[in-house]
Amino acid sequence: MREFGALLLFVFICIQIAVAQRNELAVTIGGKFTPTGGFNIDPSFAIEGSYAGRLIHVPLAGLYFELPVAAGLKSSSSNPNSCEAIVSPLCNGTSFTTSALFVAPGVKLKLGPELPVSPYFTVGGGLAHFRGADNIGNITTNNTNTVQFGGGMDFKMAPFISFRGEVRDFYSDIAFTRVIGRNTRQHNIFTMAGIVLRF
Q1: CA 128 to chain centre
Q2: What is the CB neighbour count within 10 angstroms for residue 155?
Q3: Which of 81, 86, 166 is nearest to 120 (CA)?
Q4: How far is the C-alpha of 46 from the C-alpha of 75, rounded, in Å?
Q5: Where do runs of H (alpha helix) occur along the chain?
Q6: What are 162's strand-pairing partners?
Q7: What is the pLDDT of residues 1-22, one digit of tens each?
Q8: How many Å apart are CA 26 and CA 120, to the nearest integer?
Q9: How many CA atoms are closer than 13 Å to the CA of 177, on its beta-carbon side?
Q10: Which fold has domain 2-198?
Q11: Fewer beta carbons within 10 Å, N or C terminal of the chain?
Q12: What are the boundaries of each domain within the chain?
């Protein structure tokens, strides 16, 4: 009976700690994949930092304001077939490297934030910055809009620390419209894992 009472007290304390934790800071690493956009873009290493502040809490759910900042580091790319007909610095070489930065604030719905396992869903919008450099030193950049959406799961490891797994898509205008010669959009999919600090 004492063991059962102690277990109930422990669960109650954990729930109170979780409810009191209104903020999250997360750092995740993984890969960026771009399956569309007119380029042959290889996967690249990616890193993301995010802040989330709770706006609303009801039993078994929380709504957060979220500010993710994600970067896809150097990725090898090859020019599309139509590139030779378009006047662009990147068309002077047969291959180039690209990098990308995304800042897309939004909202996050987290289910069971006080439980040991908490799935969540996120949506937002903001800006994307792309940089490309070909193999003879020409550089081009492009700033455009992006919409982000995705989800993940937090696994509590300690009262203030969680492990996170996440998939997020930054759906943006194409990285380099002048190279392709047309306006279209591309998926920038981040598959990430890392640590969350809750306070």
Answers
A1: 12
A2: 12
A3: 166
A4: 10
A5: 2-20, 177-180
A6: 156, 196
A7: 666 555 555 545 554 444 467 9
A8: 14
A9: 11
A10: Porin (2.40.160)
A11: N
A12: 2-198
